[in-house]
Amino acid sequence: MRPFWFAVQGIVHAARTERNMRIHLIASLLVVVFAIWLDTTTMENLLLFGWIILVISLELLNTAVERTVDLVTRDVRPLAKQAKDVAAGAVLVASVGAAVTALVIYLPYLLALV
């Protein structure tokens, strides 16, 4: 049971200390609100939920990479910068994929309301 609580502590720490994590959590909440409001299908909800999980997971890994690099060196080193940039890039790619998927799912519902 202790490993579970360690993991929860890591998630809470990231949410408290990382601005981008808070942004992703707010965006996730908005996705859920829109899904409820627009009454999306189960399959659409599963796709959206999968993207939410992927983006949050990658943001947690990005935070871990940043912390690890900072632990190893505080100097400005090209490899340290590349490690951080690549981890951030993974989050960006997933975030864009999530946004495009949400747009494709929500746009027909929103157009039907107009």
From TrEMBL:
Membrane topology qualifier: Multi-pass membrane protein
CDD domains xrefs: UDPK_IM_like (cd14265)
Gene3D superfamilies in the record: 1.10.287.3610
Organism: Exiguobacterium alkaliphilum
Localisation per UniProt entry: Cell membrane
Family per similarity comment: Belongs to the bacterial diacylglycerol kinase family.
Protein name as it appears in the record: Diacylglycerol kinase family protein
Pfam families recorded: DAGK_prokar (PF01219)
Organismal lineage: Bacteria, Bacillati, Bacillota, Bacilli, Bacillales
InterPro entries: DAGK, DAGK_sf, UDPK
Entries under PROSITE patterns matching the protein: DAGK_PROKAR
Alphabetic keyword roster: ATP-binding, Cell membrane, Kinase, Lipid biosynthesis, Lipid metabolism, Membrane, Nucleotide-binding, Phospholipid biosynthesis, Phospholipid metabolism, Transferase, Transmembrane, Transmembrane helix
TM helices/strands, residue ranges: 21-40, 46-65, 86-109
A GO molecular-function annotation: kinase activity
